[in-house]
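On clarity, I found the account of how folds are encoded harder to follow than it need be. What matters is that the chain and its backbone geometry are given together, residue for residue. I therefore recommend that a typical entry be quoted early in the introduction. An entry of this sort, consisting of the sequence and the corresponding C-alpha cells, reads as follows:
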Amino acid sequence: MSDNFETIAIRTQTERSSHKEHSAPIYLTSSYKFDDAEEMRALFANEKEGNVYSRYSNPNTSEFIEKMALLEGAEDGFATATGMAAIFTTFAAFLKSGDHIVSSRSVFGSTHQLLTNVFAKWGVTFDYADLDKPQDWEALIKPNTKIIFVETPSNPGIDIIDLEFLAGLAKKHNALLVVDNCFATPYLQQPIKLGAHISIHSATKYIDGQGRALGGIILGTKALIADVVAFARHSGPSLSPFNAWILSKSLETLAVRMDRHCENALKVAEYLEQHPKIKLVKYPFLPSHPQYEIAKKQMRQGGGIVTIVVDGGIDAARKFMDGLKMFSISANLADTRSIATHPATSTHSKLTEEERNIVGIEQGSIRLSIGLEHIDDILKDIEQALGS
C-alpha cells in the first residue's frame, strides 16, 4: 500500500464479495449468520474475529475505521453516530467519579455542556485553560487529572496550541491527551503523530463534506480503543452502516476538497483583513494570527473556517448575515456550500456572556465556513453583504 494520503483514502476497501464489485457495497444488516453453534460461541468469546451484530461492527464501519486509522497514523478506532457521541464515549470510557480534566476553554458548546452539566453530576471535575496561554496549563494539572482535552483549531475562535508541547505535559503527568481534530481533518493535521493518545472527529463535518450524514470516530492505540469498545458495545453509540458507507466514500475526495476549502478560505481571510467594516479576522495561515508559527509547524494548510468580528456588534452582524445572498445561514459547517453562523446566538448560546467574551466570541463574531464555490462568487457575496 502507498504511503500517500490520497491513494490510501481511495484504495483502502473492505474485502470484495463473490460478486467482484468495484465500489464497496452497503451492508444494511443488523445481524450475521454463523456457520454453526461453535462459531457463534467463539465469536462472542472473542476467540475469533468476525461480525456478530452491527452495533459492535459491520463491514462498512470497519472499512471507514481502517481508512481513518491509516490516514491519522493510529492503530485502531471506533466509529460513532455523531461527533458528540465520540467525545462522550471517550470521556465515559476513561473517566470515573473523582477524576479531573484539563480542557481548552475554547470548545464546542455541547462539549462545554458535557463538562459542566453531565460529567459534573457524576463527580468528574474540570479546569479550563486558555490556548493562547500555554504557560498556565501545567499548574492546572492535579494528581487526579486523567485527560487533557483540546480543540485545535478551536470552534469558533480558531485558536491553536502546540500539540507536541501538550503531549509532553501529558507524558510527564501520566494523563491522556485527547484532541478534537474536527476542523483540521487528518489531511491537514495528525495529532497522534504529534504525540496525542486519542484523536476525535465529527465526521459530519469535512469528512462527509456535503451536509448529508452524521458520524464520528475515535482513533488511538489498540489498547485504548479496546477500553472505548468495552464501553461502547453496551451503550450503543455506533455508526449506521449506511452513514459509514457515505463517509468512507467521502474520504476518497477529502484531499481535493480540503485543498480548495483552504485556498478559498485564505483568499477570503486576506480580503476581509483589509476591509474597514471588519474589526478582527482569525485564520491560522494569516501572519497576523497569534499562533501563526505553530499553525505552520503542525498543519499542512490553514483549513476552511474564517472567524471574523464585524464592527458594530450584533446589529451589524445580523445586517451582514441577512445581506448574504449565496451563503447559507446554518449552524453546520464544512459543507461544499459556504455557510455563515452567529455563534453567540446559536452554537455557543448556552455560554454566559462572560464565558463567550473570555474565548473571544463577541456579539459581532461570525463564523464563515468557506465552501467550494468559485472564489469570485464567494468574495462578491461577502462584499455586497458588507455594503448593504
Observations:
- The radius of gyration is 21 Å.
- The chain has a mean pLDDT of 96.
